[in-house]
Amino acid sequence: LAALEAELSSGCSLALAVVMDGEQLYVANLGRTRVLLLRGEEEPQPLTVEHSVRNADELTRLAHLGLDTSTLTEQALPVTRCLGAHPRRRRPDGPDPVSNEPELCGPLKMETGCRLVFLSDGLCAALDCSGISVQEADQLVGRLASQPGSAREALSQLLDHCQLPADWPHEVTLMVVSLCEEEAPPPPPVAPSDGRVDPYVDFTPLAHALEAVAR
Hints:
- The chain has 215 residues and is α+β, with helices and mostly antiparallel strands.
- The chain contains seven helices and nine strands, in the order H-E-E-E-E-E-H-E-H-E-E-H-H-H-E-H.
- It has helices at 2-9, 56-64, 86-89, 121-129, 134-146, 151-160, 204-214; strands at 11-12, 14-20, 24-30, 34-38, 45-46, 83-84, 103-109, 115-119, 174-178.
- This is Putative tgf-beta-activated kinase 1 and map3k7-binding protein 1.
């Protein structure tokens, strides 16, 4: 039972993007995964919000459920929306405080050259722990993700700005997706991994296989 309880206690953040009819973008998120929209030289546009006790709207939602929000901390409640974490959602006397209902954004009209940038929960935490504000982080990520090269290179440069201990426990993931254009994947990096970033993975064959199945 203890092992089952531990398994059920785990949860995760999630971000999902869907392009409909080739030009309408919809984004949904739960937790602390962040998605940015890059349009040319414009400032990065956040498409998600953080679901935690830092979010005033989430505190209001929890207060309406009867919770004393003055006692809530990030240690006790790391996220206010997520997939899983069932024990945290159990509340016999009312609705579950940790919601599994995603927040939606869209539709947004896509244009040639648009890019989506996904930051994992762990990467957002790394930037936060390094004293980088959300606005500064968005601008930094937008600049690095817009440069020539792969997301792997952008992530490595991004980690250079973070001050993390050697035993940092969270995974860090950065994904850059080009929209409304045919863009060849960057070549595999010549230099070996610096130990912080996983080796390059080319998903092009998988994408082609899925397209073939869909047809």
